[in-house]
Amino acid sequence: MLRTRMLVLAFMLVLAPLAHAFDHQHAAWSALLSRHVAWLDGGHASQTSYAGFARERAALDRYLAQLSAVNEAEFKAWTKGEQLAFLINGYNAFTVALILTRYPDLKSIRDLGTLFSSPWKKRFFVLLGAPRSLDELEHGMIRARGAYDDPRIHMAVNCASIGCPALRPEAYVAERLDAQLDDQMLRFLGDRTRNRFDAQRATLEVSKIFDWYGADFEHGWRGFDSLPAFFASYAMQLADQPKDQQLIRERAAKVRFQDYDWALNERR
Q1: CA–CA separation, 131 vs 214, rounded Å?
Q2: How far, in Å, CA of 1 to CA of 233, rounded?
Q3: What is the pLDDT of residues 182-200, one digit of tens each?
């Protein structure tokens, strides 16, 4: 199935109107997201209608072909904001496409892997002229040290799971990227199912994301040199009571990483 999809996308690339400039508003992707992703829980999480995406698979494939048509020279000529928005949108859109290869007979993205192969290591799409996997896109391009160095990307890339920060119901665009990433951070940290303060134990219980990618928050982004320093800056989002917020600001709270929920973030 994945091989067939790659061949279809390659064929679409041949037919794509390459003379047209790339749409940095990502209008086609934004339209799909607006129809098939909905905020929940006061905007702290979202759910995705994969059935809706499946009904509009042709529109999704056309957008993926637009992404795949961009070559490396064109990409390098863009601003950093245009590049990062392109890569984040690409990660999210190709993840949706991966889910659709086995939808609706799928409970988790991890079901697409085996004991010996990860779904994130499948090279099932072309980007900047080469076959890529989701891991290569996230870790080799988005997170590459010295490229963008912005840990907020962890609140923007979506792995199709309940434990993930919300898939935003709009595309990321360069001129609003900073505000969108800040908004994603605030929404995620304010989600009490993923990040909360246990007053009885004086413990900050946070997403496993901060365990897996803690180093990304410790390389000087906005002056932070440690996770406690990062948490201290967001004390108001992480705890509801002033005394608990003060403990976080003083870096006196213990930190525990919660289990990750890999169930599909599906809206039926």
Answers
A1: 29
A2: 46
A3: 999 999 999 999 999 999 9
